[in-house]
């Protein structure tokens, strides 16, 4: 520990002399929530809400699309809704710039998104919904058919156990032979 003391003292002195050393500068976080429409990765179409959160003393947030102002929120929750149909199709960048009550400016990381047409959104939705619908239909069919098949199999086994005809296993002669032996043995005890 004595060997580390000079190193620790030097690090403490360096951190005290450098303002903000080791402290992370506060930044804004930007969430993009789908209200109605399509979203797959960075491809979006429809109505969305941008929501910014950051320092406790955040007073105002400006929402930018391709570095152009598209909305302002003056109080928490700092939200702005927009429709992709109001903008050109293609790649766009979204960012939030906030101002704290002390006048400090904070920025969110830039989010890159691709605005797509409604037709592309519907087509992508159909590619997801069709297999999902088929899977649900298959599970429903199994749910309806499986109990009937299991019930039929039980009826066949019950017939075998009670000695009724209709064996499905193909081993009817062996079963008959065993029943005959049992009945002969049982009759010996009755005499």
Ordered list of secondary-structure elements with their pairings:
Blueprint: H1 5-17, E1 29-40, E2 43-53, E3 58-65, E4 68-73, E5 78-83, E6 90-100, E7 105-107, E8 111-115, H2 118-162, H3 172-190
Parallel strand pairs: 2-8
Antiparallel strand pairs: 1-2, 2-5, 3-4, 3-6, 6-7, 6-8
Provide a descriptive summary of the structure in words.
By secondary structure, the chain is α+β, with helices and mostly antiparallel strands. Helices cover 40% and strands 32% of the residues. It contains 3 helices and 8 strands; from the N terminus they run H-E-E-E-E-E-E-E-E-H-H. It has helices at residues 5-17, 118-162, 172-190, and strands at residues 29-40, 43-53, 58-65, 68-73, 78-83, 90-100, 105-107, 111-115. Strands 1, 2, 3, 4, 5, 6, 7 and 8 form an 8-stranded mixed β-sheet that branches. A hairpin with a 2-residue loop joins strand 1 (29-40) and strand 2 (43-53). The protein starts with a helix and ends with a helix.
CATH class of one domain: Mainly Beta
Which whole number gives the mean pLDDT?
79
Shape: elongated
The CATH architecture of one domain would be: Sandwich
Number of strands: 8
Strand content: 25-35%
Series of H and E elements: HEEEEEEEEHH
Structural class: alpha+beta
Question: Level of helix content?
Answer: 40-55%
Distance between termini? 100 Å
Weakly predicted, low-confidence segments: 19-24
User: Radius of gyration, rounded?
Assistant: 37 Å
Q: What is the CATH topology of one domain?
A: Immunoglobulin-like
**CATH homologous superfamily classification of one domain:** Immunoglobulins
**Oligomeric state, counting identical vs distinct chains:** single chain
Largest sheet descriptor: 8 strands, mixed
Number of helices: 3
């Amino acid at each position: 520990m004595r060997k580390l003391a000079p190193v620790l003292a030097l690090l403490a002195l360096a951190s005290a002399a450098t303002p903000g050393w080791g402290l992370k500068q506060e930044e804004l976080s930007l969430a993009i929530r789908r209200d109605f429409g399509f979203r797959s990765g960075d491809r979006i179409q429809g109505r969305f809400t941008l929501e910014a959160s950051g320092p406790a003393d955040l007073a105002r947030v400006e929402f930018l699309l391709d570095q152009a102002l598209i909305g302002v929120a003056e109080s928490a929750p700092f939200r702005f809704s927009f429709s992709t149909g109001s903008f050109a199709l293609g790649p766009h960048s979204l960012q939030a710039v906030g101002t704290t009550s002390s006048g400090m400016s904070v920025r969110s990381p830039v989010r890159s998104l691709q605005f797509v047409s409604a037709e592309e959104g519907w087509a992508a939705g159909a590619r997801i919904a069709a297999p999902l619908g088929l899977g649900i239909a298959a599970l429903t069919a199994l749910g309806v058919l499986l109990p009937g098949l299991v019930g039929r199999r039980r009826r066949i086994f019950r017939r075998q156990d009670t000695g009724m005809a209709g064996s499905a296993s193909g081993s009817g002669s062996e079963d008959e032979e065993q029943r005959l032996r049992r009945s002969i043995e049982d009759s010996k005890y009755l005499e």
